[in-house]
Every structure is written in C-alpha cells, then in structure tokens.
Design goal:
The complex is a heterodimer of chains A (202) and B (468).
Chain A (H helix, E strand, L loop, with lengths): L5 H11 L9 H12 L4 H11 L3 H8 L13 E6 L2 H5 L2 H12 L12 E6 L11 E3 L2 E3 L4 H12 L46
Parallel strand pairs in A: 1-2
Antiparallel strand pairs in A: 1-3, 3-4
Chain B lengths: L31 H6 L4 H7 L3 H11 L11 H5 L10 E6 L9 H7 L1 H15 L3 E6 L4 H16 L15 E6 L9 H8 L24 E5 H5 L1 H7 L1 H5 L9 E8 L5 E6 L5 H6 L13 E5 L19 H6 L8 E6 L4 H15 L5 H18 L5 H14 L29 H15 L1 H5 L20
Parallel strand pairs in B: 1-2, 1-4, 2-3, 5-8
Antiparallel strand pairs in B: 5-6, 7-8
Helix pairs in contact in B: 2-6, 2-10, 3-6, 5-6, 5-7, 14-15, 14-17, 15-16, 15-17, 16-17
The chains are: A alpha+beta (202), B alpha/beta (468).
The complex binds flavin mononucleotide, iron/sulfur cluster and FE2/S2 (inorganic) cluster (FES).
C-alpha cells in the first residue's frame, strides 16, 4: 500500500483545503507520503497528482527538485553531516571521515542493517555550533568523534526513540484550523477588498 | 550529545537593548502562557485600535530594514502593491539556508508567537488576506513550535475569523519546504508555494509586490523582519529609531561563526556595533581562537565579498559596508584565522552555490560548475597559472565589469563598491563567484603557491627515430 492510506488521504484533503489552489499542497502531501512509507513511491506520486489536480509528471518534476524527497528506501536514520563553510572551518571533513569509518559506508551509502544512511549536507542554520550534523533533521551540535560514536550507540539502542522518529516523520505536531475559527482561503479569483480595509488606504 | 539543546548558540551578555530576543533566555518563552505574561499580543491589540493606514505609517517611519538579505524597508515595500488590487498575500520567508545564517530558526523555535503577532500586524496594516508561513523543511523543531503556537493562537482568537472581535480576519497557513537553498529567493519561494520546482522568476516583471503568488500582489518578508513589528506596535517608531542610527535603526541579529573564542548569535545595536567589537569585545566573541591572527572574514553570508583586518572598524551599517565592497546580507559573519587555507575555503563556498544552482539559466548553471571544477583542480595541486586567469574570465561571464571587493592596505588597492552587474536570472550565479573573486584578489599568492609549474616535456620536431 503505497498510495496514501485512508487516514492520510483525509488529512491530505484537509491540507489542500487551506490553499487557494490545490497544487500548492504538493510539497506538504509529498512529505505526508514520505512519512507513511519512508520514501516517495511512484504510486504516491500518482496519488498526490490526483489529489492536487496535476499530472504525475508535474508532481515528479516538483518532487525531484527537492533534496529531502527520497525515491528509494533509506536507513531508519538519515545522518546528514554539514560540510559548509563554518562547519568546514571547524573540522567537518574529519567528522565525515570518522563517520564513514564508524558506519563502514561512504557518504551516500546505507549500512547493511538498514539503520543508517550517511549523507553530506549543506548549511543547517546552526553555524555557531559547528561542526553540526542532523539525524532525520534533528540537530546535533559541536560534534566530536566521541560524541558521534555515542550518538550512533544511542540510536542503535533505541535510547533516542523519544527524540528522533524514523525517517520521513518531520514535525510530530500538525497545524489544525478549526472550521468555526477559519477566516477561509483568499482565492485569486475572488477580488474582495478585506473587510477591515477602508477604501482610502487600500 | 544532546538533541535540541536549549537556545543553542544564543548569547545574552552585556547590557544591550533587546527587541526580538527578549524571551530567548526563558525556557518556556515559546508557550502562549509565557508570551501573555511577557506582554504578548499587546502589539496586535494596539494595532487594532488604530486604522491600518496609521499602523502602516508607523512601520514606514520606523524604517524596518529587511533582514532577509536585501535590506529593503518593510513599510516601503508594502506601499509598492498596486492600490485596490485584492486579494494580496503575505509569504513569510522562513527558509533560512544562506551559509553562516542562524537566527530565523531560533526566532521560530524560541518565540513563535512573536512571529505570528508580527504576521498579523503586517496583514492588518497592508490589507493582506492570507498568510503563508514557509518554513525550511529541515527544521522540524521550528515546525513543531510554530505549529503548536498557531494552534494555541487560533484557540485564543488571535488568528482566523474576526480576530479579537473585530472585522479583521486572516488565516495563517504553515507550509513546509523540502530542501532547496534557491527557494529562499523570493520569486522561487512563490513558485515553490505554488507546488512547482523552485526556480526564480525574472525581475522585472515578476516583482512579488506587483505579480506574486497566483499572480496577485504579494509581500515576502523575512522572519526577523516581521518579528520586530510587535515591539514597534507597542513602543512606537520613535522608540525604535532611537536605537541604532538614522539609516540603520533598531537592532539586528547576527551569527558569528568560525575561528572566534565564543561564536554565537547576538542581538546587536544596528549601525554602530563594529566588526572589531563583535570579534574582540568581552560581551561578544572574546577574540580569535588560540590568540591567533585574524586573516579574513565574510561579513554578510556566503554570497558576500570578503573583508580583512583593514575593515574591522566598519560598523554594521549597510551603506558603509556596501561602499567598502561588500554587503551585510543575512547577518552571517564567518571568521577565518591565519591557519585557514584560503583557496579551500573559497572552494567550499563556490561548491555550495554551484550545487544549489537551479540550472535554469546558462551563465548560472555553467558558470558555477566551471568555477568549481577549475578551483578544485587548483586546490588539489593540479592547477596551472592559466587556471587562475580562467577563474576570473568565467566570473566576467557571470558578472561583467568590476566585481566589488574590499580595499587592502597590504596590496595598496582601493575598494570597488557594491553592487555588480549580472547575466543570470538570480543571485546564485554571482554568489558562486564572490568567494573566488575575493580570495583571488586578496590572497592571490596562496593560489600561486598551490600551482606546481610543470617542467616542459621537450617535444621533438623531427621523426621519432631522431630521438635518442
Ligand atoms: C539565492 C537567494 C536566497 C535567499 N534566501 C533567503 C532566505 O533563506 N531567507 C530570507 O528571508 N531571504 C532570503 N533571500 C532574500 C529574499 O529574496 C527576499 O529578499 C527576502 O525574503 C525579503 O524579506 P525582507 O525584505 O524582510 O528581508 C534570498 C535571496 C536570494 C537571492
Ligand atoms: S543563477 Fe543559478 S539558481 Fe539563479 S536562476 Fe540561474 S541557474 Fe538558477
Ligand atoms: S555551515 Fe554548518 S550549519 Fe551552517
């Protein structure tokens, strides 16, 4: 089952309803499908396309533009080591080298047990805390060889399960807009002057 | 090892005015309860007691310079939308990915209600009918904090229909990015929000204020820019302009990273704090690591031309820094001490922009790729003197004419001021060149030292068997 399941299809429709045009929900829906399956399947692409009213080719075109979408299974934990300037100045290369040794895979590879995929990544907006890495996009700062080994041990032993969900799950809190509180979408096809705007200042 | 350390990187030391980071030192500053207890949503209430035009005027008077990179005043930007054309949208730029930049993530994680309140004030003042808060995909904690805050704010009646019992109604929709640096560029952000590949649009005609999301007038503002608005709505423009200088009022968040003793994110007084204060001041970075010498620094994000100790006494003021040959950009300062391998540092940045190029325009796509390839060869010790000239030639095809650079007393050269000409659709192409140009202009000898002159292999002019 790699189309969106029933619960996620309901959620998908709710998300689509927040946008003036359904296609705007493409990226959130792709994330939803990646959360469900760990990666984006061809069936999910087709399903998202149906839901947002685009062709599969259009959705695929969008999906492939973005780094976070994976089209094949990856490890339970995606380990992204930052290699941009601030981290580079403080030992990113050495950290990557150590990670490759410890995990026994090169950047881009997945460990045989399917636990870890190692990737070289770009600036993670944590530059003052270099060198940085992210596990499933959760930040780990000021990494050393020792703290890297500890991290891998903890992840293998399940000690960080509460902090770091498996690959695909981004935020564990979703926005909900209660129907009775919603202002409603502002459609480009309905040129309405906002109620609070006096003509003179609009 | 800890994930999610509390406000990692933020340093609150010394006695400076705080506008946007006032709740960062509280460990629950992101909750609605704490936000209320510390004056939260008072700015919205104050704004709703006035007309939208009055609030807009206040923001204009305050001169809130955009914090996303270009430094354009927010109030003035809002005034560029064609009158009477609705709906208009607000797209919040929370894509923070410029190398060295670290502030918007903290603002979203530590004080999401302040950002939401800022969005509401902007929407009220400029007549924006729907808000899309675009957060970089690789920031799940920011998503969780802003998502939770939005849920709280809806429940409390601050967002949605008839806000606080008035006729002001607006939804704020949390949107997820998925990893693409170029999407931070405002027109690419809009493409992405329309569900497409994040390729920048040509300006003109696609200035978002005129033709933005779904072809409608759209304001794109940075997270930090909007986070200033609640304070201004409460305290007034006069209090804001009393901080900083006439041309750079208020405060700014800066991230100082690299080879300093105490790298960190600081809220500084705009326009007066100098780079020397930042690097050596006790309340800031406390000097270069190991007592080393400062070699160079990038003053405004990876795209900014580099400075050397010659520019240490420049204040954090856009015009002065522009005249000195660089830009303040996104408040990201990267410091290199004397041990730094300059060609390699330049390569790291050039690689970033080449890899993140969307591939849409030829000078951007080819230029970046070639710069990286040639530079890699030089860094690997396989380069020739001709390669150094070639780097400048490739740069010339991306940015024809003089490229900005700093003055150097050591080299006896004057500054070439900002800005530059470009042949690309967006600034990613020129950004790939900026580090190469700076490094080659200021530290050419380091490139030359990597070039091993190959001995000429004598080529025989006669028949092969003449060769004995
Ligand atoms: C390649 C590129 C990347 C950018 N990335 C960001 C970004 O991540 N966040 C941001 O706020 N602005 C970014 N900008 C600037 C935006 O285009 C835009 O000027 C800004 O969001 C406007 O908000 P402001 O006026 O409040 O600064 C980027 C610009 C370029 C050219
Ligand atoms: S300069 Fe690069 S990122 Fe910008 S439009 Fe051209 S190819 Fe795309
Ligand atoms: S350079 Fe590594 S987090 Fe910014």
């Amino acid at each position: 089952m790699s189309r969106l399941n029933e619960a996620n299809t309901i959620l998908a429709k709710e998300i689509i309803g927040r946008y003036p045009k359904a296609r705007s929900a493409t990226i959130p829906l792709l994330h939803l499908s990646q959360q469900q399956n760990g990666y984006v399947t061809n069936e999910a692409i087709a399903h998202v396309a149906e839901l947002v009213g685009a062709t599969s080719a259009e959705v695929m075109g969008t999906a492939t533009f973005y780094e976070m979408f994976k089209f094949q299974p990856v490890g339970k934990y995606l380990v992204n080591i930052c290699g941009t300037m601030s981290c580079q100045l403080l030992g990113a290369d050495e950290l990557m080298h150590h990670a490759e040794q410890t995990l026994g895979v090169k950047a881009g590879g997945t460990t045989a047990d399917g636990m870890f995929t190692l990737e070289h990544a770009e600036c993670q907006a944590a530059c003052t805390e270099a060198p940085n890495l992210q596990v499933n996009y959760r930040h780990c700062h000021r990494m050393t060889n020792e703290s890297f080994d500890q991290l891998i041990d903890d992840l293998r032993a399940g000690r960080l399960d509460g902090d770091i969900p498996p690959h695909g799950t981004l935020a564990r809190v979703r926005q909900t807009i209660p129907a009775e509180k919603a202002a409603g979408v502002a459609s480009p096809d309905a040129p309405v002057t906002p109620a609070w705007m006096p003509e003179a200042t609009s | 090892m800890s994930t999610y350390p509390w406000a990692a990187g933020y340093i609150d030391d010394g006695d400076r005015p705080k506008i946007v980071t006032s709740r960062f030192s509280l460990d629950d500053g992101y909750t609605l309860e704490r936000y209320h207890a510390t004056g939260g949503y008072d700015g919205l209430k104050a704004a709703l007691r006035r007309t939208p035009g009055e609030v807009h005027e206040e923001v204009k008077t305050a001169t809130v310079l955009g914090r996303g990179g270009a430094g354009f005043p927010a109030g003035t930007k809002w005034g560029l939308m064609p009158p009477g054309k609705f709906p208009r949208y607000l797209v919040v730029n929370g894509d923070e990915s410029e190398p060295g930049t670290y502030k918007d993530r903290l603002l979203m994680e530590r004080d999401p209600h302040q950002l939401i309140e800022g969005c509401l004030i902007a929407a009220y003042a400029a007549g924006l009918s729907q808000v899309f808060l675009y957060i970089r995909g690789e920031m799940p904690l920011a998503h969780e904090r802003v998502g939770t805050a939005l849920n709280e704010a809806y429940a409390a009646g601050y967002v949605g229909k008839n806000i606080l019992g008035t006729n002001f109604s607006v939804d704020i929709v949390l949107h997820w990015g998925a990893g693409a640096y170029v999407v931070g560029e405002e027109t690419a952000l809009i493409e992405s929000l329309e569900g497409k590949r994040g390729e920048p649009r040509l300006k003109p005609p696609y200035f978002p204020a005129a033709i933005g999301l779904y072809g409608q007038p759209t304001i794109v503002n940075n997270v930090e820019t909007l986070s200033n608005l609640p304070w201004i709505a409460v305290n007034g423009a006069a209090a804001y302009t009393a901080i900083g200088t006439a041309t750079s009022p208020g405060t700014r968040m800066v991230a100082v990273s690299g080879h300093v003793n105490r790298p960190g994110v600081y809220e500084i007084v705009n326009g007066t704090t100098t780079f020397r204060d930042l690097f050596y001041g006790d309340e800031f970075c406390q000097g270069i690591r190991n007592g080393n010498e400062l070699k160079a620094f990038v003053p405004g994000g990876g795209s900014a031309p580099w400075f050397t100790p010659d520019q240490l006494d420049l204040p954090f003021e856009g015009r002065l820094v522009g005249a000195a040959g660089s830009m303040l950009g996104s408040g990201a300062i990267m410091v290199m001490d004397h041990t730094t391998d300059i060609p390699k540092a330049a390569l790291t940045l050039t690689h970033f922009y080449a890899a993140e190029s969307c591939g849409q325009c030829t000078p951007g796509r080819e230029g970046g790729t070639w710069l990286e390839r040639v530079l890699q060869r030089v860094v690997d010790g396989r380069g020739s003197k001709a390669d150094l000239d070639q780097l400048l030639e490739i740069g010339e095809s991306i940015c024809p004419g003089n490229f900005p650079h700093a003055a150097s007393s050591k080299l006896g050269i004057e500054a070439t001021p900002f800005p530059y000409k470009m042949t690309t659709i967006c600034f990613v192409g020129p950004s790939a060149y900026a580090p190469v140009h700076s490094a080659l202009t200021l530290f050419r000898e380091e490139f030359e030292a990597k070039i091993v002159e190959r001995k000429h292999i004598p080529v025989s002019v006669g028949a092969p068997d003449d060769h004995h």
